[in-house]
């Protein structure tokens, strides 16, 4: 069993999500980073209103989600503030941190033929506690009948990987995205969250609804490190509704996300499904 982050200081190898001196600083977390398929049809945008043709947007989008329009040379990202069978009202993807509201949006686009859902959520900086990754490879003994008290053979019987994030900047939208179908929001006519309800999600399929998580370390200059080895992608994980808050505390508390990591059969090394990859863009899979 190996628990925690691997730390290899002063060896010429950048620590996993840390600095060369062995100190693990704050991390930046992004969830649901997998790219979704392009959708059929076209859309025309005037101001903050998009009209769809060849697609009922209400079947693919709901209030609170995002759409990425594959315009060239720069992609356009918009927030879904309202949606019906033919149109969607857009707002800016940026959220005012003071008010928690999406900023006004205006765009003129005659016809776009390529667009996709965009579920990526910036979970913000983690607290000083950072991220804890635990990996437990289980070993099972096997004995054969009729051979007396012979030594047992031992085989790997499976692996389990857990992750724990201490989020210092968790907002309402981030909470809704991170704890899928358990945190249910209500929206006003502009698509801004007005209330949050917590519900039971009995029968929820954690693995089917799992998505990728990217973790970035900060560099020595205080910004996000550009060294690709300071980035880790956990290919499939999902978070449980398992956190606690203390009201009237003398200091700010954080929300701790407790999740399970699953093997990704779409990314394999030597025929084995992958859990996590350091510098995923450079990885060569089967």
Question: Could you characterize what this model shows?
Answer:
The protein is an all-beta fold. It has one helix at 172-178; strands at 2-3, 27-31, 42-47, 49-53, 66-69, 76-83, 87-91, 107-112, 115-117, 121-142, 153-167, 183-187, 193-198, 211-217, 231-240, 255-261, 264-269, 272-274, 276-278. The strands form four sheets. It has a seven-stranded antiparallel beta sheet, with no helix packed on it. A hairpin with a 6-residue loop joins β5 (66-69) and β6 (76-83). The relative contact order is 0.16. The model is unreliable at 1-14 (pLDDT under 50).
Strand and helix layout:
Layout: E1 2-3, E2 27-31, E3 42-47, E4 49-53, E5 66-69, E6 76-83, E7 87-91, E8 107-112, E9 115-117, E10 121-142, E11 153-167, H1 172-178, E12 183-187, E13 193-198, E14 211-217, E15 231-240, E16 255-261, E17 264-269, E18 272-274, E19 276-278
Antiparallel strand pairs: 1-10, 2-10, 2-14, 3-4, 3-8, 4-7, 5-6, 5-9, 6-7, 10-11, 11-16, 12-13, 14-15, 15-16, 15-19, 17-18
Give the tags.
286 residues, mainly beta, seven-stranded antiparallel beta sheet, six-stranded antiparallel beta barrel, 19 strands, disordered N terminus
Percentage of residues assigned to helices: under 10%
Strand neighbour order, sheet with most strands:
8-3-4-7-6-5-9
Please work out how many helical segments DSSP would assign.
1
Element order: H for helix, E for strand? EEEEEEEEEEEHEEEEEEEE
Radius of gyration: 22 Å
In round numbers, the mean pLDDT is: 82
Reported for the largest beta sheet, the result is: 7 strands, antiparallel
Number of strands: 19
Task: Give the end-to-end Cα distance, rounded to a whole number of Å.
Answer: 26 Å
Which parts are unreliable, with pLDDT below 50 for 5 consecutive residues or more? 1-14
Shape: globular
Q: Note the beta-strand portion.
A: 35-45%
Summing up helix and strand content along with how strands pair, one would put the structural category as: mainly beta
């Amino acid at each position: 069993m190996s628990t925690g982050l691997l730390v290899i200081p002063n060896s010429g190898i950048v620590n996993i999500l840390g600095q060369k001196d062995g100190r693990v600083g704050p991390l930046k977390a992004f969830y649901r980073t997998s790219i979704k398929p392009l959708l059929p049809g076209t859309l025309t945008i005037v101001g903050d209103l998009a009209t769809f043709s060849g697609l009922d947007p209400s079947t693919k989008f709901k209030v609170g989600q995002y759409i990425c329009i594959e315009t060239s040379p720069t992609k356009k990202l918009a927030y879904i503030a309202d949606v019906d069978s033919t149109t969607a009202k857009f707002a800016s993807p940026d959220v005012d941190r003071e008010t928690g509201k999406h900023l006004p949006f205006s765009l003129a686009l005659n016809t776009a033929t390529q667009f996709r859902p965009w579920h990526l959520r910036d979970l913000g900086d983690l607290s000083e506690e950072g991220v804890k990754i635990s990996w437990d490879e289980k070993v099972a003994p096997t004995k054969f009948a009729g051979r007396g008290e012979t030594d047992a053979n031992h085989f790997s019987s499976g692996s389990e990987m857990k992750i724990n994030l201490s989020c210092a900047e968790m907002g309402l939208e981030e909470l809704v995205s991170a704890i899928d179908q358990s945190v249910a929001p209500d929206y006003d006519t502009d698509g801004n969250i007005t209330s949050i309800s917590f519900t039971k999600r009995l029968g929820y399929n954690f693995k089917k609804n799992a998505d990728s998580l990217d973790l970035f370390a900060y560099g020595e200059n205080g910004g996000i490190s550009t060294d690709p080895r300071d980035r880790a992608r956990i290919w499939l994980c999902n978070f449980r509704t398992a956190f606690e808050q203390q009201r009237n505390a003398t200091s700010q508390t954080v929300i701790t996300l407790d999740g399970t990591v699953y093997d990704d059969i779409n990314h394999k090394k030597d025929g084995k499904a992958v859990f996590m990859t350091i510098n995923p863009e450079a990885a060569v899979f089967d």
